Every structure is written in structure tokens, then in C-alpha cells.
């Protein structure tokens, strides 16, 4: 008993201290509201301006910056380190070539001829990539074998150039690729505007399909003529008359020996099909693709001599770039592409501006292609576009255009606020607070945290913040008017005269009189309620009437309150509304802050910025908004009432507003409580099933999976740019084969001597950091001149060759053996002296000094060799270069070693990638562990090589997906845990917290389940959305939960038992005359009832608790029901305003906001509240006993209470506490 009294005393003391703080703060706000408001405005404006002045505005030109995982233990950071190593190797090779070229003699070729060739075909050569020169020995061998044999033959078979003529044209020193144009022009001159190769960095791609969805084959004469006409129109539009292009109509004309596609006839189509199908077998063998990609590198004379499928690359280009993948099997093509190559040299227009830039290409797209039916003639139409890879720059331009939707969202919010609160001023203040919160968060982001990278996705914080800010403002104002309503009801109860700010209208006068008459009947009915259990239990049906049901918006607003009453009202607002706003703000911001767990900079920075925005908005809510409430009550309400602001509107407007008010109160004070209470079992069962189904969809089937494509979507899928990226790339063999080659047996690089430490901070990617003036960190422990280290590397390469995880290791090991032979040659000049040397074993020098000398001579040999390639050689990474040595730039000693192998896997799906990487990591760890065990305690090689690592360019997508999955679930768990503890500490009730967590879990599960059913995959944006769902789903549930706990359920609701004598004496002494008269009539005896059974006792206990549960449910809906609905509706409108955006990120975020608001309101209202009405906590059941956390000693309860009640304020608080615990 003493312990319980002690706990109660501690709880009361804590409540008293909290009440004191709230009272002092409320007094300060009421008395100094203007100062508080102006001070907040000034601080926010200063912070916002300083952040803009001291730092440059965000640059959105590269939206992919920050899209990849970066930091410790990420594979992408290894790729960044590998890029820096490659740059150093390229620099080393380029330097060696420059030195080498200074030592070479001038070429013996004719300068006049060389200059003629280079000058004449300089522009034509722009169509080709860097290609190897013709092998001189092979050409001389062909010349000796058959000097007059036919090397190149014309298409009509009537002209031929022999090997001797070709040799003379080449002149022993000219690039064959340039000279071949001379040879081809002498044999047969194709259409000069047609290209023989593709430069993927400078082109316009226009994809066409038929306008008729039933006749989809483009190989029809009418369709080809339509395409031919559009080809000429596009050449004029792009201003590319002087550059080459190739199209399907031109190819058909070429294979029919016609120079113009406008001359095509129906008979030309079978000729074209037969010609391409004749090359089908060569294409299937891979020979055509090999020759086409090599651009005449592999024995071009022999290829042209024996098969015309290789001439000009036209057959290869037609199959891979102009016809879709279905042609080889159906002789039909549904899609075709037109390729137009822009010149390499800039072209200046008449007004002095350069054309064929990304900006001009974007302008062309907007003016002539986007939502323009200009190129749809009823036969063919444009299907997709790819303009010089301007998809990303166009997306960034679209961001600026989509900022219009922010204005739209603000307009919608203003409209809803005006209708709900009937105040333009409040609507403007809400949006001002959103802007100031954004400014303060931007100041923290740029100045305090010093972050340079500002992702464009941070701009979506505006939309989310609008919804959250409206939620807070509506809750605050609803709580304010609820407190004002209590004063109104109290005045009517005590029959005090009520003053108003202005003169009442006739309708308001009638309403005021009806309220006054209604008061006496309700109070009389409540206070004279007999001690009849059956009569009292009728309340279970929800038929109880509340004073709030006679609430009149105009009367409450116009009621005049003094400063002391404002303080009392502000105390109530802070006690009820501020608590729920605190919980929602901190749980939502915590959900965003948990994004920092991710290693993807975009996710981290969005979470950080959004969390700061919400916290600043909360600070403004409890400072500036509550101050504005007082200013609004002191100034705006009197002005509105005095001048009859709303009375000047048309009568129809006043009628609509009154009707909306009545509907609002009828729904949230009568119908929804009645429906919830009456059908609570149905709602619990129904939404429980929905929640479980959502969990099954998300985690079992079809479940949330990583994306199958490596592409990132910027626009909607029906956008021409996205149709190219997501549809055309899967229709044409060029892109299909490119993707297939990238994922089939991709390269894997092992690196020793360099730490896998990325010195660039992911938040500031443009700031380069160095260690010892190097942008990479060398491993100082490793010694490549140590013979033991070389032997282990040799053993490691042999193990790789034997492992099933790798392929093409033999090519790498062959080069490794060559290095060994060279080292042996530098050490032992007379190789015949050691006949026992095994050529298949790597030679390791016996001492470190020998290794050092041999390695230096090896590097010198490489630098002086004529075989050293340039840094731009396209064969880097092929079989020609599978080993790399990186000397220290200061000491010139070997500091790093890397070698390449191929992974024996098709790296297509995430599951395959993950399994293979796990095996790879396990294999490398076992190799190191084996070395450690073999060396024993005295070994040092393990310490040298244990920091080695491996990476592959194909790890980029895998690492991104791995971090997305890890970050999503980790952040989700942490945000849920944080929400649990915040709810637990705020509500102070375990049952409320558990119910709320179950509701939040179901909300998230059903929201994500709908995303899964809509085809969403787990990408970066989806990660952010899922983590956001925790913070946004908790709001409505918390508002209801806090309102349930804080509900003054006994107000105007006497319990059906006799009044205790002490409390009755207190009321008879201090109450008003009406109460005294009614209380004297309350009977003092109870009815004698038979002793019930256990089941009946439980049922009676539950039914008795229902009285309190139902009253709390109704009180919750009365206090926050309409505010929660309108807050959800405003957030829904904010999402709706984003949905028309052409950017996927904006439209998906809008869809998410609409869905999460709808699902959250459904579950919070129709699942959480029915749970509470069925088995919600009553009295102090499941409350956290905070008093047990303090040691109270052993005084008696009487002395504790006497000590605590020494203060008058505390005594008054205890009196209120005791009153709440007794029946009236």
C-alpha cells in the first residue's frame, strides 16, 4: 500500500512539474506572442539568406552524382579506386609513348600522299573509332603469294583491285582505314550520305513503328516510302545535310542498286530480304559481328574477296541497328531506327550560336517531337527517341518546369484550409512556415553540416512538408477551438453571460438561444441519472449525447475570451495537441534520419534534409504557430467578427459552409463513433485479414524484389526517351548483344599494393583529398621484390586457373610466365647454362636484390619498347593487357600489382550475382587463410597480401542493389524501433503502443503490397518511399492514441453509482446552485444483486469498461477526428498535385503520398479505434509505472501526500485528480 502511494505521489509530482512548465510557457506565449512571432521570422529569414549568399545554389546538371554506394566496405568505392589506378597506368603508358616517339625516326612514307589522304578524308574518318593499322607482314605475304589476285571486287563483279594496287595505295605507312575509303570509291561509290560505322557518342536516333496496330510490318512499300519521306524531313530538321546517316529505306535502295529511296518499288523488298537472309548463317557464327565491330581489322582483304556480306558493314549494320530482333525468324520488322550522325566540328548558326548541342537537341525535341503528331502520317509514326544522350539533361530541365506543381500544391492547400478553418491568413501562415522550415533546413544542410551535394530529390521535401505542416496546424487549431468550446460550454453550464467579438446575426442569435435551452435538459438528464445498470449500459450503442454535438463554428469563433482564458486554452492545446505533434514529428523525422544507415548518398542526404525540415517545422509549430494562434485570436477574429467578413459573401456560400460544418460534426461526433462501436468486430477482422495479406504479398509472393534492369527511369514509360531505354534496347540486336557481352564472363581485377580506400567523401564528391600527395593509398607493408611474395602470387594464379569460378586465367598466367622469362633473362645472360629450367613455371629470383635489379630492367625495357600502347588504346583490358605494374611516382619502386581474369558466370540476375560474390569472397578468404596456416607464426607474406582485394565493373549494379536491400530493411527496423519507444514514452501505456505498432505495421505492409502489385521494384526511390512510410503512417494513429489517453472521458458523463459522501460534500459546498440541487436528489443506496459467475464477472467487467472505452473513442474523434481527416486530405492533395509530373520520381512520390495517407487513415480510423473500443486500456491499466523508477523511501502514504500537498497549486492539482477518480 505504501509503495502504491509512493508511486502515485511521484507521478503526481512529475505531472505538477510538467504542468508548471506548460503554464509558464503558455503565459509567455499569450503575453508576448508578437515578439515570439517576429523573432522567429527574423531568425529564419537570416538563416535562409546566409545559406544562399555563402554557398552556390544547387546544381542539378548531373543527377546521377550520389546515385551509387560509396564509403567503407562498398564495392563501388573499390571501382573509384580502380579508376584512379587506371588513370595512373594510362598516364604512365602515355608518358612512355611520348618519350619513345622522340627516339623514333621519321616515317619513310610520302608526306605529300599522307597529307592528301588525311586532308581529304579527315571528316569521313570521324565515322570510325580508333582502329589498328593493317598488319604490314600479312599484307606483304598476300602480295608475294598472289600479287595480281583480286583483293577488292565491286558489287557488280565487273571491277577488281589486285593486291599490288592495294599495296601501292597503302604506301607502306598510311592507316588502312583511311586508304580503304579510296579503294572503295574506285570500285563502287555507295550513297555518300550513308555511314559504314556508328559513333555512339554523337548521333540522333529516331525509332519508328506503324500507325496501324494490326499491320505492324514496316517492310511494306507504303511504309518504306513513308519512312523515306520522313528521312528527308529529319535531315532538314537536324541540319545534317553534310554528314552521313543510314536508314532502312536507304539500305533497301542500296541492295537494289538504287541511289534514292524514293525510287523504291515493291519488288525491291524481296531482294533486300534475300540478301540479308543470305548473310544469316554468317551472322549466326558470330563472324559478321566480329568483323563489323572490328571495322575491317581482321584480314579485311580476304573477307571482301570471298563474301559481299562484309562490304561496307551494311549487312551487319542493317541486322543489328535497323531491323528488330524478330526479322531473322519472320522476315518482318515491327520497329526500325534512323541514325543521323552530327559532325565532329562545331557548326555555328546564323545568329552565332552553336547547333547540335544538348540544349539545341532538347529544344528540337520539345518543339517538334514531344506530344506532336507531325511525324504521324497514318502509315508510320515515331515510337522512341535518343538524342545525343540528352535524357538526363532533359530530366533536369523538367525538374525546373515541375516546380509549378509546388505552386499547385500550395494553392490546393490554401483552398482546403480556407474551407476548413475559414481563414486565408491561417493558410498563408501554414505555407510560410513550410518555406521557413525549408530555409532553416537548407542552412543546416549547407552551413552546419557543410554538404555540397544537393540531390534533386530533396526538392520533393516541399510536397511532403506541406502535408505534415497542415497536419500540425489543423491539430493545433482544432485543439484551440475545442478548448474554446469547453469555455463556451462551461459558461452555459454556469449560466454566465457570453460576450462576442461582434454583433450576432439573426441565425446566430437563434442558434445561441437553442444552445442555451439545450444545456439545461442535457445537464439535468446526466446529473439525475439513476443508479440503474441496464439504463446506463445503453451507452454501449453509442447513443450518448455530448455538448460537442451542439457545437456552432461561428459562435465559438466569435466568442470573446480574455487573457487568462487564453492562457488556460493554450495550456490545454499544449497538453493535448503538442504531445501528439511531438510524437508524429519525431517519429517521422527519425524514420527519415534512419536513411543515414544506407551507404547511398542520395538516400542518406534526402533522409538528412527531410528529417531537418520536419524538426524545424515542429519547432515552428510549438513557437510561431502557437504564437500566431494568439495573434489570430486577438486581432483576426475580432476584425472578422466586427466587420462581418464572411457575412459579405453570397448567401449560397454561407449555406454551403454551414452545411459542411454540420456534416463534419455529424460524421465525426455521431456516425463514425456509432459505426465503430457497433461494427467493431467486423472492422477488426476485416483489416486484420488485409494486414496479413499485405505481409504475405511483400515477403512471400510475389514479394518485393530488386530490379531486373540496370537502367534508372527518369520519365514515364510512355515518354519517347524511356521507350528507347526500356523497350527499343530490348528490340535491336546491337543493344541486346552489347548487354549480353557485358554480363557474360565479365572481367575481375585482383589488386595488391593499394588499399581499397576511397578518399573522396560521398557527400562532397567534387572535393579531392590526398594522402602523401596521392589520391590513392598505397600499402606500405607489401614488398613485391620479396621472392616469397612472388612465389605466393604465382601459387595464387595457379589456384585461380584450377578453380571453377574463373575462366581465361590461362591467358593471364601466360603473360605472368612471360614476365618470369624476362626476369630470368635479365639475371642470367647465358640462358643455355641452366638447362633444367621449366618454361611452364614462373621464374623467381633467389634474392631480393636480384629481383630489384631485374624488375628495374624490366620497366626500362617496357618504356623503351616500340610495343607500348597509348593510354587510349581500346584493347586495354583485353587479352593484350592482363597484367599491370604501378611504380611509385617518387621512388620508382613497384608499389602495386594487378591482374585480370574472367568470372565464370553470367552476371544477369541479382540472385546469381549475390551467390557468386559470396563464393568469390569465401574463396579469397580461404586462400589467405591457407597462406596464414602454411607460414606459421614467423610468416610475413600474409601480412603483406592480406589487404589485397578484387573488383569488377559489373559489381556496380550488384553493389547498388545490395546496399538498397540492406539499407531498406535496416532503416525500416530501426525506424520502427524508434517509433515504438517514442510512442511508449509519450503515451505511457503499453497496450496503446502495441496496438499502434500493429496498426503501423499493417499500414506499411498494405502500402508496399500495392506497390508490388503495381509492378514496382526495390530501387533507390522505392527505398526512400518505404522508409518514409514508417514516419508518415504513424501520424494518424498517434493522434488517435494520444487523444484516447488524454481524453477527459468523465466530463458530463457520471458513473452509475452513488456519489461518495466526501466528494458530494465538496460539491455541495463549492458547486453552483444547480449542481447542489441535483446532487441532493442522488440516492445513497445501491441495489442488491446476486453473486455472478466468473464468466459473468468478466463480461460485466468488460461491459463496465466499455463505458469508459466508448467515451474515450468519442472524445478522440471529437477532438482530432476532423483534423486528422483534413490533414490526410491535404497530404493527399499534395500527392495528387505531383502525379501529373513527367518525372517518375515526382509522380511515384505523389502516388505514394496519396496511397499512404489513404491507407493510414483507413487503418487508424477503422482498425486502431475498433481495437481500442474492443479491448482498449481503461483507468490506469497497462500504464508504465514511472514511479517505480525512483526510490521513495518508506514513509507512510499519509506523510507523502501531506508533503506533496503543502503547496497550494499542488493541492489544487490533487483535488482535480481526486475529482476525476470519483463519480459525480
Automatic annotation (TrEMBL):
GO MF, any single term: transmembrane transporter activity
Domain SSD: 448-631
Main location: membrane
Coiled coil: none
Subcellular localization(s) per the UniProt record: Membrane
InterPro entries on file: Dispatched_Hh_regulator (IPR052081), HMGCR/SNAP/NPC1-like_SSD (IPR053958), SSD (IPR000731)
PANTHER family according to UniProt: PROTEIN DISPATCHED (PTHR45951:SF3), PROTEIN DISPATCHED-RELATED (PTHR45951)
Keywords: Glycoprotein, Membrane, Transmembrane, Transmembrane helix
Entry similarity comment: Belongs to the dispatched family.
Topology in membrane: Multi-pass membrane protein
GO process terms (BP): smoothened signaling pathway
A cellular-component GO term for this protein: membrane
Official protein name in the record: SSD domain-containing protein
Transmembrane domains' residue ranges: 36-55, 401-420, 426-445, 457-477, 567-593, 605-631, 679-700, 967-985, 992-1018, 1024-1045, 1117-1138, 1150-1172
Entry annotated with the keyword Glycoprotein: yes
Glycoprotein as UniProt keyword: yes
Superkingdom to which the source organism belongs: Eukaryota
Amino acid at each position: 500500500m505504501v509503495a502504491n502511494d509512493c508511486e502515485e505521489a511521484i507521478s503526481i509530482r512529475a505531472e505538477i512539474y510538467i504542468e508548471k512548465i506548460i503554464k509558464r510557457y503558455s503565459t509567455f506565449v499569450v503575453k508576448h506572442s508578437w515578439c515570439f512571432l517576429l523573432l522567429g521570422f527574423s531568425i529564419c529569414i537570416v538563416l535562409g539568406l546566409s545559406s544562399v549568399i555563402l554557398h552556390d545554389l544547387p546544381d542539378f546538371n548531373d543527377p546521377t552524382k550520389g546515385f551509387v554506394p560509396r564509403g567503407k566496405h562498398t564495392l563501388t568505392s573499390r571501382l573509384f579506386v580502380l579508376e584512379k589506378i587506371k588513370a595512373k597506368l594510362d598516364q604512365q603508358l602515355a608518358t612512355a609513348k611520348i618519350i619513345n616517339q622522340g627516339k623514333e625516326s621519321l616515317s619513310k612514307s610520302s608526306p605529300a600522299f599522307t597529307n592528301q589522304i588525311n586532308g581529304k578524308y579527315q571528316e569521313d574518318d570521324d565515322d570510325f573509332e580508333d582502329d589498328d593499322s593493317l598488319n604490314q607482314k600479312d599484307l606483304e605475304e598476300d602480295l608475294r603469294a598472289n600479287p595480281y589476285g583480286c583483293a577488292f571486287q565491286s558489287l557488280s563483279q565487273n571491277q577488281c583491285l589486285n593486291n599490288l594496287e592495294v599495296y601501292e595505295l597503302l604506301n607502306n605507312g598510311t592507316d588502312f582505314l583511311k586508304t580503304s575509303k579510296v579503294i572503295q570509291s574506285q570500285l563502287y561509290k555507295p550513297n555518300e550520305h550513308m555511314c559504314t560505322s556508328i559513333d555512339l557518342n554523337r548521333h540522333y536516333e529516331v525509332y519508328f513503328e506503324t500507325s496501324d496496330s494490326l499491320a505492324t510490318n514496316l517492310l511494306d512499300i507504303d511504309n518504306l516510302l513513308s519512312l523515306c519521306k520522313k528521312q528527308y524531313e529529319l535531315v532538314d530538321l537536324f541540319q545534317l545535310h553534310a554528314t552521313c546517316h543510314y536508314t532502312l529505306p536507304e539500305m533497301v535502295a542500296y541492295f537494289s542498286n538504287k541511289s534514292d529511296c524514293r525510287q523504291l518499288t515493291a519488288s525491291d523488298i524481296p531482294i533486300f530480304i534475300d540478301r540479308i537472309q543470305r548473310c544469316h548463317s554468317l551472322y549466326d557464327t558470330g563472324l559478321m559481328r566480329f568483323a563489323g565491330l572490328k571495322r575491317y581489322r581482321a584480314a579485311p582483304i580476304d573477307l571482301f574477296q570471298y563474301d559481299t556480306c562484309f562490304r561496307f558493314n551494311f549487312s551487319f549494320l542493317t541486322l543489328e541497328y535497323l531491323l528488330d530482333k524478330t526479322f531473322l525468324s519472320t522476315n518482318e520488322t515491327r520497329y526500325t531506327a534512323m541514325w543521323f550522325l552530327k559532325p565532329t566540328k562545331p557548326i555555328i548558326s546564323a545568329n552565332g550560336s552553336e547547333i547540335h548541342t544538348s540544349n539545341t537537341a532538347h529544344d528540337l525535341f520539345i518543339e517538334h517531337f514531344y506530344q506532336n503528331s507531325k511525324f504521324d502520317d497514318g502509315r508510320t509514326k515515331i515510337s522512341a527517341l535518343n538524342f545525343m544522350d540528352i535524357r538526363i539533361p532533359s530530366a533536369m530541365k523538367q525538374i525546373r518546369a515541375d516546380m509549378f506543381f509546388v505552386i499547385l500544391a500550395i494553392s490546393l492547400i490554401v483552398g482546403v484550409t480556407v474551407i476548413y478553418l475559414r481563414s486565408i491568413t491561417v493558410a498563408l501562415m501554414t505555407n510560410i512556415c513550410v518555406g521557413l522550415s525549408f530555409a532553416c533546413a537548407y542552412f543546416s544542410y549547407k552551413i552546419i553540416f557543410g554538404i555540397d551535394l544537393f540531390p534533386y530529390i530533396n526538392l520533393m521535401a516541399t510536397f511532403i512538408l506541406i502535408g505534415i505542416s497542415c497536419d500540425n496546424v489543423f491539430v493545433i487549431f482544432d485543439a484551440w477551438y475545442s478548448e474554446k468550446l469547453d469555455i463556451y460550454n462551461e459558461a452555459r453550464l454556469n449560466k454566465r453571460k457570453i460576450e462576442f467579438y461582434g454583433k450576432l446575426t439573426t441565425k446566430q442569435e437563434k442558434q445561441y438561444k437553442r444552445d442555451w435551452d439545450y444545456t439545461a435538459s442535457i445537464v439535468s438528464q446526466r446529473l439525475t441519472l439513476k443508479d440503474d445498470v441496464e439504463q446506463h449500459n445503453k451507452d454501449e450503442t453509442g447513443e450518448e449525447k455530448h455538448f460537442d454535438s451542439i457545437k456552432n463554428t461561428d459562435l465559438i469563433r466569435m466568442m470573446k475570451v480574455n487573457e487568462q482564458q487564453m492562457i488556460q486554452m493554450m495550456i490545454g492545446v499544449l497538453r493535448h495537441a503538442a504531445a501528439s505533434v511531438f510524437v508524429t514529428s519525431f517519429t517521422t523525422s527519425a524514420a527519415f534520419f534512419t536513411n543515414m544507415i544506407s551507404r547511398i548518398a542520395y538516400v542518406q542526404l534526402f533522409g538528412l534534409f527531410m528529417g531537418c525540415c520536419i524538426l524545424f517545422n515542429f519547432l515552428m509549430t510549438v513557437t510561431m504557430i502557437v504564437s500566431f494562434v494568439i495573434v489570430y485570436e486577438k486581432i483576426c477574429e475580432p476584425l472578422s467578427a466586427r466587420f462581418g467578413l464572411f457575412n459579405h459573401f453570397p448567401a449560397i456560400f454561407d449555406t454551403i459552409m454551414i452545411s459542411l460544418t454540420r456534416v463534419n460534426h455529424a460524421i465525426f461526433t455521431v456516425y463514425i463513433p456509432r459505426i465503430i462501436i457497433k461494427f467493431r468486430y467486423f472492422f477488426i477482422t476485416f483489416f486484420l485479414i488485409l494486414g496479413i495479406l499485405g505481409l504475405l504479398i511483400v515477403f512471400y509472393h510475389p514479394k518485393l524484389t530488386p530490379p531486373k534492369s540496370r537502367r534508372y527511369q527518369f520519365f514515364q514509360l510512355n515518354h519517347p526517351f524511356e521507350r528507347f531505354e526500356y523497350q527499343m534496347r530490348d528490340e535491336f540486336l546491337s543493344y541486346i548483344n552489347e548487354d549480353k557481352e557485358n554480363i557474360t564472363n565479365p572481367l575481375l581485377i585482383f589488386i595488391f599494393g593499394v588499399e581499397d580506400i576511397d578518399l573522396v567523401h560521398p557527400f562532397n564528391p567534387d572535393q579531392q583529398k590526398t594522402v602523401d600527395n596521392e589520391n590513392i593509398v598505397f600499402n606500405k607493408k607489401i614488398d613485391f621484390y620479396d621472392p616469397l611474395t612472388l612465389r605466393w602470387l604465382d601459387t595464387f594464379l595457379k589456384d585461380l586457373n584450377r578453380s571453377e569460378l574463373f575462366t581465361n586465367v590461362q591467358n593471364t598466367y601466360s603473360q605472368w610466365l612471360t614476365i618470369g622469362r624476362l626476369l630470368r633473362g635479365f639475371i642470367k645472360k647465358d640462358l643455355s647454362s641452366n638447362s633444367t629450367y621449366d618454361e611452364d613455371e614462373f621464374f623467381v629470383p633467389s634474392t631480393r636484390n636480384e629481383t630489384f635489379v631485374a624488375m628495374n630492367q624490366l620497366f626500362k625495357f617496357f618504356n623503351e619498347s616500340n610495343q607500348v600502347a597509348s593510354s587510349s588504346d581500346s584493347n586495354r583490358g583485353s587479352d593484350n593487357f592482363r597484367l599491370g605494374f604501378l611504380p611509385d611516382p617518387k621512388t620508382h619502386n613497384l608499389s602495386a600489382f594487378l591482374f585480370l581474369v574472367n568470372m565464370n558466370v553470367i552476371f544477369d540476375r541479382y540472385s546469381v550475382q549475390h551467390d557468386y560474390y559470396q563464393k568469390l569472397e569465401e574463396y579469397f578468404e580461404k586462400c589467405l587463410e591457407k597462406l596464414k596456416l602454411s607460414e606459421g607464426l614467423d610468416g610475413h607474406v600474409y601480412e603483406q597480401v592480406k589487404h589485397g582485394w578484387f573488383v569488377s565493373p559489373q559489381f556496380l549494379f550488384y553493389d547498388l542493389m545490395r546496399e538498397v536491400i540492406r539499407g531498406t530493411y535496416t532503416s525500416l527496423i530501426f525506424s520502427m524501433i524508434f517509433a515504438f519507444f517514442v510512442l511508449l514514452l509519450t503515451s505511457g501505456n503499453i497496450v496503446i503502443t502495441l496496438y499502434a505498432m500493429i496498426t503501423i505495421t499493417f499500414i506499411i505492409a498494405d502500402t508496399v503490397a500495392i506497390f508490388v502489385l503495381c509492378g514496382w521494384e526495390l530501387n533507390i526511390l522505392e527505398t526512400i518511399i518505404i522508409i518514409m512510410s514508417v514516419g508518415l503512417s504513424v501520424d494518424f494513429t498517434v493522434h488517435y492514441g494520444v487523444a484516447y489517453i488524454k481524453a477527459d472521458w468523465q466530463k458530463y458523463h457520471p458513473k452509475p453509482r452513488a456519489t461518495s459522501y466526501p466528494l458530494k460534500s465538496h460539491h455541495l459546498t463549492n458547486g453552483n446552485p444547480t449542481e447542489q440541487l441535483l446532487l441532493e436528489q442522488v440516492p445513497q443506496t445501491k441495489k442488491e444483486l446476486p453473486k455472478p459467475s466468473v464468466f459473468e464477472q468478466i463480461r460485466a467487467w468488460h461491459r463496465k469498461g466499455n463505458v469508459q472505452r466508448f467515451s474515450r473513442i468519442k472524445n478522440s474523434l471529437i477532438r482530432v477526428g476532423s483534423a486528422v481527416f483534413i490533414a490526410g486530405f491535404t497530404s493527399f492533395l499534395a500527392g495528387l498535385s505531383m502525379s501529373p509530373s513527367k518525372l517518375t520520381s515526382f509522380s511515384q512520390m505523389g502516388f505514394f503520398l496519396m496511397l499512404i495517407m489513404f491507407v493510414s487513415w483507413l487503418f487508424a480510423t477503422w482498425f486502431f479505434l475498433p481495437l481500442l473500443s474492443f479491448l482498449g486500456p481503461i483507468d490506469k491499466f497497462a500504464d508504465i509505472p514511472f514511479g517505480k523508477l525512483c526510490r521513495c523511501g518508506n514513509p507512510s502514504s499519509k506523510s507523502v501526500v501531506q508533503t506533496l500537498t503543502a503547496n497550494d497549486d499542488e493541492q489544487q492539482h490533487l483535488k482535480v485528480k481526486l475529482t476525476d477518480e470519483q463519480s459525480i
